[in-house]
Write a structure and sequence with these properties.
Blueprint lengths: L7 H4 L21 H6 L12 H10 L1 H12 L8 E3 L10 E3 L2 E2 L1 H12 L4 E6 L7 E4 H17 L7 E5 L4 H13 L2 E4 L6 H11 L3 E5 L2 E3 L2 E3 L1 H9 L7 E5 L12 E3 H5 L11 E2 L3 E7 L7 E6 H15 L7 E4 L6 H13 L3 E5 L10 H9 L3 E4 L1 H8 L4 H4 L8 E5 L5 H11 L6 E4 L35 E4 L5 E2 L4 E7 L9 E2 L3 H8 L7 E9 L5 E6 L3 E4 L2 E4 H9 L4 E11 L3 E10 L7 H15 L8 E5 L12 H8 L16 H17 L2
Parallel strand pairs: 4-17, 6-7, 6-8, 7-14, 8-11, 11-12, 16-17, 16-18, 18-19, 19-20, 30-31
Antiparallel strand pairs: 1-2, 3-13, 4-5, 9-10, 14-15, 15-24, 21-22, 21-23, 23-25, 25-26, 27-28, 29-30
Helix pairs in contact: 3-4, 5-6, 5-7, 5-12, 6-7, 8-9, 11-12, 14-16, 20-21
The chain binds ligand 6R9.
The site of ligand 6R9 has 20 residues, from α12, β20, β25 and β26.
Length: 681
């Protein structure tokens, strides 16, 4: 028997038994072969004969669609009575009310029943070639031990536990353990500073923190426990800190610290799951807004899990037995939805990537793909651009024949990076899905797939809305733009189960940020272009849209052209105040390694390219060549910092603690001064 003796029946309360979909659906007599094979629970929808029709229905009859999917894909202890109760004009979002379930049961127990020895996690540790595998049975046991440990130490339903750990199995078990006992988790990216961590702990009112002694990334040891020690000094709410051991080095333990693995050994491997309401909080996740204060977006149980699972299954065409490799850190929403919840809800084998794309060398990702036999690879454009400049040989060294789908997330992927990803990494045979979504949306909202397998994919475009998603574009006057070949503010006209429910402790800010700008719609903060064919392309944050002589231009559009220059590795374009044009264009450009050109010549070339590909007005007034760009640790270019440097507002640089390498800012400041002195009249 695969379970420790005597605990089989206790793993799953009988009330969690899987419900049979057929009893809830009015299955029509006609054959729906195609749709039935694609999405079994949709087979009964009248008149739906293909994927396009199913998409239509998911929007026009969104309640029927989500009801069928929720019944089919989640295990409920008590079925929901109301599919949705939403009013976007008031920022009210509720899904599956009356329903009760447990997220950890959905991610673990039900798979332990059917395939206990299937690998749930492959931990790709920083040290290459030392990966560790954990089956669903082992992950459930680990989760139960953590759940019991937290309960024994007073963590109750409704409490919020802050998790400050690198991407590792115990971090996943900690998230799931919170879900098991009905506590919310607040994962803070383990690269944030003590101040940033403290601010999040305080805002979340956590009394429990889980961390590790030290992290290891790119061969470097990171003193996570010490950072927690500094953070909790200013967090009077914190009563206890669980410390797991990632390395063998002991750390100073205080009275409030608890040796996590040691204490876990004392716990039972069975932990009764809390029966949660659909709309109870599952987690908070802090993200940056337009103000300096991060906002704790709140996601709830059923709707979030369902949306993460469905998008994981269909956008990436995940099938049973596939190994899913999302290289995001669990500290970001991508890690939550596509390392943890989506894949585990679907019973997948999911990879936990602890390292960096270039450690110990730029072949790391593709060596991992070969070793772990990864079928879907999901990463960020910034890493693709970085690897591109090291050349094809690092990719070609490894066997990538297991790859079926390549994904991109987090920022626009420029055409050159897209083409390289598709042609070199995917050998031209894997669809590349550029997935647009946000912490706020819970899961992918716009992506080229699912669509018919032979439907076209346009490089660098997210293209098609997912099931149940109804994007609209709105102009600056608040008018809905109904034609194609047009750009506007990207909003959502309908609620969907995965969307955030509120900002922790600040529902007013939630309403003001997302629902007041365009009453009746959810405002994403992004701009988008809808092509002649009706495909969506994200043009960047609306605060990154600049206006040059009355012409609107997305900085991402200019970057896309600049990046097409073979000498350029990456670029960041910002607007700056210009006395005549309103705003001028300032481009920061990083060259590929080993490129030896005259900067003046290259500037002329880039200006020519932009003039030619977009318009003369978009051509940069200034081009500053830099060794690197200031980035967040998740790889996003900090345009805010670049803008401040260009505005000569060094006092206003703000909090740089989230930067990957703060020294990059000094280089940028010096380069800017040099450029100005050369150009002074
Ligand atoms: C998932 C995630 C969200 C913001 C979003 C947008 C940008 C994300 C994108 C993209 C263009 C894509 N973004 N995916 N822009 N194309 N495929 O990244 O969440 O960290 O909250 O960032 O990232 O600007 O509004 P989050």
């Amino acid at each position: 028997m695969w379970l420790p003796c005597g605990c089989t029946s206790k793993y799953v309360a009988s009330s969690f038994a899987r419900r049979i979909l057929a009893s809830h659906l009015h299955v029509s007599g006609r054959s729906r072969c195609n749709v039935a094979a694609f999405m079994p629970e949709a087979a009964g929808f009248e008149g739906v004969s293909g994927r396009a029709a199913l998409r239509e229905l998911s929007v026009s009859s969104s309640e029927s669609f989500w009801a069928a999917v929720a019944r089919h894909r989640l295990s409920w202890s008590i079925p929901f009575h109301t599919v949705q109760d939403c009013d976007l004009s008031r920022g009210k979002i509720k899904w599956f009310e009356g329903g009760k379930l447990n997220v950890s049961v959905n991610c673990l127990d039900r798979h332990v029943h059917t395939c206990p020895e299937r690998v749930a996690l492959i931990w790709e540790r920083d040290e290459r070639g030392s990966e560790m595998k954990y089956t669903y049975r082992e992950l459930l046991e680990m989760t139960c031990r953590v759940g019991n440990l937290l309960r024994r130490h007073g963590v109750k339903r409704g409490d919020c536990v802050t998790i400050y750990m690198p991407t590792c199995p115990l971090a996943v078990a900690s998230m799931l353990a919170c879900a098991r006992i009905g506590a919310a988790h607040n994962v803070v990216f383990a690269g944030f500073s003590a101040d940033a961590l403290a601010e999040r702990i305080r805002d979340a009112q956590s009394s429990t923190v889980i961390t590790v002694n030290q992290g290891v990334r790119g061969g470097k040891v990171i003193e996570l426990k010490k950072t927690v020690d500094r953070a909790v000094e200013s967090c009077p709410t914190v009563k206890q800190v669980f410390v797991a051991m990632r390395t063998d080095n002991p750390v100073t333990m205080t009275a409030r610290d608890i040796a996590m693995e040691e204490e876990m050994l004392k716990e039972d491997v069975v932990c009764e799951p809390a029966v949660m309401n659909s709309e109870d909080v599952l987690f908070l996740l802090y993200t940056s807004g337009s103000t300096g204060k991060p906002k704790g977006l709140v996601h709830t149980q059923a709707g979030y899990l369902l949306y993460a699972a469905l998008t994981h299954r269909y956008v990436f065409s995940y099938h049973d037995g596939d190994v899913f490799g999302c290289v995001a850190d669990i500290g970001w929403i991508t890690g939550h939805s596509y390392v943890v919840y989506g894949p585990l809800a679907n019973g997948a084998t999911t990879v936990l990537f602890e390292s960096t794309p270039i450690y110990p060398d730029p072949g790391r990702y593709w060596d991992m793909v070969e070793r772990l036999k990864i079928n879907q690879f999901y990463g960020a454009p910034t890493a693709i651009r970085l690897l591109l400049k090291y050349g094809d040989q690092w990719v070609n060294k490894y066997d990538r024949s297991t790859l079926k789908t390549l994904g991109s997330v987090g920022e626009p992927i420029n055409t050159e990076a897209w083409e390289w990803y598709h042609r070199v990494v995917g050998d031209g045979r894997c669809p590349v899905v550029d997935t647009w979504w946000q912490t706020e949306t819970g899961g992918i909202c716009i992506a080229p797939r699912p669509s018919d397998p032979d439907a076209e994919i346009v490089p660098g475009m997210a293209m098609r809305p997912f099931f149940g998603i109804k994007p609209v574009l709105i102009d600056t006057e608040g008018e809905l733009l109904t034609s194609n070949n047009t750009s506007g503010a990207l909003c959502m006209a309908q609620p969907w189960p995965g969307m955030a429910r509120t900002i922790h402790n600040n529902h007013q800010r939630f309403i003001e940020t997302y629902f007041q700008p365009y009453p009746g719609y959810f405002f994403t903060g992004d701009g988008a272009y809808r092509s002649e064919e009706g495909y969506y392309q994200i043009t960047g944050r609306l605060d990154d849209v600049i206006n040059v002589s009355g012409h609107r231009i997305g900085t991402a559009e200019i970057e896309d052209v600049v990046n097409q220059c073979p000498a350029v590795a990456e670029s960041a374009v910002i607007g700056y105040t210009h006395s005549i044009k309103g705003q001028g264009v300032y481009a920061f450009v990083v060259l590929k390694k080993g490129i030896d050109v005259q900067e003046a010549d290259l500037s002329r070339q880039l200006n020519g390219m932009v003039s030619e590909k977009i318009a003369k007005y978009a051509s940069p007034d200034f081009i500053q060549f830099a060794q690197r760009l200031p980035k967040t640790r998740s790889g996003k270019i900090m345009r805010r910092v670049l803008r401040k440097v260009v505005e000569s507002d060094l006092e206003g640089l703000g909090d740089l603690s989230t930067l990957d390498d703060p020294a990059a800012v000094q280089e940028i400041i010096q380069g800017h001064e040099k450029l100005l002195s050369k150009n002074r009249p």
